[in-house]
Amino acid sequence: MSAVPIFLLLGVVVGLGIGYWIRLLVAQKQTNSAEKKAQDLIHEAKNKQRELLLEAKDKSLKIIDEAKKEDNQLRREHDEKIRRLEKRESAFDQKLMELEDKKSRLQDKEAEVDKLKEKIQGIKEQGMDKLQKISEMTQEEAANALIKNVESGIKEDLLSRVRKLERESQEEYEKKAQHLIVAAMERCAHNLAVETTTTSVTLPSDEMKGRVIGKEGRNIKAIEHLTGTEIIVDDTPDTIFISGYNPIRRHVARIALEKLILDGRIHPGRIEDAIEAAKKELARDIRKSGEDAAYELGVVGLDPKLIQILGRLKYRTSYGHNVLAHSIEVAILAGSIAAELGANVSLCRKGGLLHDIGKALDHEIQGGHPEIGYDIMKKYGLPEEVAYMSIGHHEDNPKTLEAVIVKVADSISGARPGARKDTYEQYVQRMDELEKVAGSFDGIEKVYAIYAGREVRIFVQPERLDDWAARKLAKDIATKIEQELKYPGEIKVTVFREQRMIEYAR
Question: Could you tell me the pTM of the whole model?
């Protein structure tokens, strides 16, 4: 082995040793550095721990101090409230004692008052006994005498005041009512046509009468049988008359006769055809009359069958007054009055037009026309407030303002001069009933119905009734007339009390 490799090997070994030693030093140095850092961290953590503990102690001390302060404050407030309550309790006890004392004093005073009342009552009774002995009258007799004296003293004054107030209020209301009614009447001016139970037919010549009568009267019998009327042939030139209470039947007969006369062929077979044609023509005229009435008043929404029934009123009269013309007039008047009063104008117009619709069928259906009209309007879908007009215009106190307006308009239409007429028997009966009702009271001497029943004058016995009783009698008579009699317009009740003192100088 040579020397160079040995040295080389030796150098390697030495280098390895030096390197290991250096590595060991470096590792030791790094270890020392890490331990130092760890110690530093531990030391720093301990310092922070101490600081945190100190801060926590400071905060806990502050919290404890604040809690003590709050506790002391609450204690002081509690003590203050207790003192207040004790003070109030003592004041309440004091007031309670004062109230007890006042109560005892009031009880004593009440007892004294009761004693005084008993004493006063005794004095009053003694005084009443003395007064009764002096006046020789009982207490009731004395009270009645006092009342009579007071009544006689103030009766005249009271009567004059009542008259004045009634006169002023009546004049004011009459002026307003007259203005309202006149304004409504001025806007409605319908012609008044009075019909009877006969209808005339003009003939081209008197020779036509024989043809109408026919052989052995067969033609006239056929007409009467088919129309339910009576044909009157008399000495009136160029005229024959159709008599019957049903106006529709009369007009059917009139139209048929006019057709037969115009055609010239008059025999039973032709008569039957003419009457059927007349019925159809009259039905068309009835429908057109109902439509024209509704159109004239602006009433819409009526059932066609109801329009047909309305048109029948053209051939219906009441007291000689055409009912369709009357219904149109009532509708116009009711609408005018409703506009002045701020009521429902359309409702009043519709109710006024249909208020007598029951008269179109009252010959065919049993019952009065108000109830029949109500049922008809309800049947054809009209509302209750419209259907009620049929009944309301015959009631003393209608339930709605519109019904009152229709009732007033109906009275105005019926009270127009010449609008209606009475037969002689009805006129005498109405005057007799009026005098009987007015004369049914005590103290009446004579009763006279004048001005066709528009006024009734009553003469009373002056020794039985004074002025106050006479005034009350006039009101009672007017009320009884309203309740028991039916009449258009109004009736004036006048009571006369006259006392004459007659002496003779001899």
Answer: 0.50
